[in-house]
Design brief:
The chain is α/β, with parallel strands linked by helices and 451 residues long. The protein has 2 domains: 74-186 and 342-367, 3-Layer(aba) Sandwich (D-Maltodextrin-Binding Protein, domain 2); 189-340 and 391-448, Periplasmic binding protein-like II (D-Maltodextrin-Binding Protein, domain 2). It has helices spanning 9-23, 30-35, 88-100, 113-122, 135-144, 160-163, 166-171, 195-200, 206-211, 217-229, 240-249, 268-282, 310-313, 354-362, 369-380, 387-397, 412-425, 430-448, and strands at residues 74-78, 105-109, 130-134, 173-174, 177-178, 189-194, 233-236, 256-257, 262-263, 287-288, 300-306, 321-324, 336-339, 343-346, 400-403. The two termini are 41 Å apart. Pfam families: SBP_bac_8. Keywords: Signal. Residues 49-65 have a biased composition (Basic and acidic residues). It comes from Paenibacillus mendelii.
């Protein structure tokens, strides 16, 4: 994919010729050269006085980006050994890129890319040329402290591969500058559910409710209470804080407002979500906390899960497993994907050939939005039990993402998660907990944004 403007060779020769002409007093326009010659009035022996030609003012052309790596590697920093997951098409693309850019693709796998980026940059040599970093760790910290560079003037963001990727083009921006990019964003976060268990208990199928627009908190609660009455575990969620965040964003609420850098926990939609959260734990008591009970064999009805969790929750399980959105809250108008694991690619501040890095990187993967999502879905198909679940996953790829990003602000997670834990345990009511922590929460945002 051609991403950057490259000066054609012919134009470079033309500039050289023009500069030579300038050195000899000529103009950069041949027609004007003729017009500036002394006029012949037809009177022999007479010559019009010669006007002093002005030196044309020319601006130095922008240096042409050097797209040849000169044999040096293109270092890609990540934490999961992504080279082991390349398909045949991506491996073929890699060979082409290596030949075209005179480089060798090198995957630098480290446990904590953010920490390594900071320490290597302080030492004067970023450990990679392009690095995957969780969104919550990039903004505002790495921008405010100067560890990553903006790419607005480096990459043509109007290209469809980027402009149509609205998720990353929106979330990769900070203070009106673009820093992060990604392949077509195709992730999911919803509820895996044991279809076989629900059928045995005579309960509605959440997928059917979802498709009719009736998959709501009220319906969800009724199903959870019935599962509990049937002697099974209703719901397991990774953490109390994650469930609180999910409920907030599925009710059109917010934890913080990143456009105004203010805490938003006391907004009406958020408080309604926290009251429902409180009731799930302390009134209806339908949340599971026993890590020993396994999902997929009839013991647990619902677990929250990301796209890749199908390997543990779905594949090779004896029961039929479905996948649906989180249910809609009373204030919601659509199903959304509350997502806390968004990762984007960033160029460290010390990388000097950013144009070449981004150009080469963009040719390693499928950046077309539709094709990229199709490829991701094809990879997941063998791990899912039924077409309905794949249908939901595809819809999630194209849905509104609600980014759970409060951990981006230094100290905010400690304050917010303490409140969520206290609500879940019954130590504080939602109103009391939020009123208590609001000043501290706003202080954490102010410190992080240097307000």
């Amino acid at each position: 994919m051609k991403m950057l403007k490259v000066w054609p060779i012919v134009l470079m020769f033309a500039l050289i010729i023009n500069l030579v002409g300038c050195a000899s007093g000529g103009s950069d326009n041949p027609a004007n050269n003729n017009a500036n010659q002394p006029a012949n009035t037809g009177n022999a022996g007479t010559t019009a006085p010669e006007e002093k030609a002005e030196d044309p003012k020319t601006e130095d052309p922008k240096p042409e980006p050097i797209m040849d790596f000169g044999g040096k590697p293109l270092r890609i920093g990540q934490w999961w050994g992504m080279d082991a997951y390349l398909n045949d098409e991506e491996k073929a693309l890699q060979k082409k890129v290596e030949e075209k850019y005179n480089t060798k693709i090198e995957y630098v796998t480290v446990t904590d890319t953010t920490a390594r980026l900071i320490t290597s940059s302080v030492a004067g040599e970023p450990f990679a040329d392009i690095v995957m970093i969780p969104l919550r760790e990039a903004f505002p910290k790495l921008v405010v402290e100067g560890y990553v560079q903006p790419i607005d003037d480096v990459i043509d963001l109007s290209l469809p591969a980027f402009s149509e990727n609205l998720v990353t083009m929106t979330n990769g921006k900070f203070q009106d500058k673009q820093y992060g990019i990604s392949e077509p964003y195709a992730e999911s976060h919803g509820l895996y559910y044991d279809k076989t268990l629900l059928q045995k208990l005579g309960l509605p199928d959440p997928y059917e409710l979802q498709e009719k627009g009736e998959w709501t908190w009220d319906q969800f609660l009724e199903i959870l209470k019935s599962i509990k009455a049937g002697g099974k575990v209703p719901l397991h969620v990774d953490s109390e804080s994650l469930l609180a965040s999910i409920l907030i964003y599925t009710n059109e609420g917010k934890i913080e407002d990143d456009t105004t850098n203010t805490i938003a926990l006391d907004s009406p939609n958020t408080m309604e979500a926290l009251q429902f959260y409180n009731d799930l734990y302390n009134v209806h008591k339908v949340i599971h906390k026993d890590e020993q009970v396994a999902f997929g064999d009839g013991g647990i009805a619902f677990v929250n899960g990301y796209r890749w969790d199908n390997l543990g929750y779905v594949k090779d399980k004896p029961n039929d497993i479905g996948y649906v959105y989180f249910p809609k809250g009373p204030k919601a108008t659509e199903y959304v994907v509350p997502y806390d694991k968004m990762n984007l690619w960033y160029i460290p501040k010390g990388v000097k050939n950013a144009e070449a890095v981004l150009s080469a990187f963009s040719e390693l993967f499928e950046f077309d939005v539709k094709k990229g999502k199709d490829i991701k879905l094809q990879k997941e198909e063998p791990n899912m039990k039924n077409k309905e679940s794949l249908d939901t996953m595809r819809k999630m790829f194209d849905s509104t993402y609600k980014i759970i990003n409060y951990k981006a602000y230094v100290g905010l997670s400690d304050v917010v998660e303490e409140a969520f834990m206290n609500i879940a345990s019954g130590k504080e009511s939602p109103t009391t907990a939020i009123e208590r922590i609001k000043p501290m929460a706003q202080g954490a945002i102010d410190v992080s944004t240097k307000k």
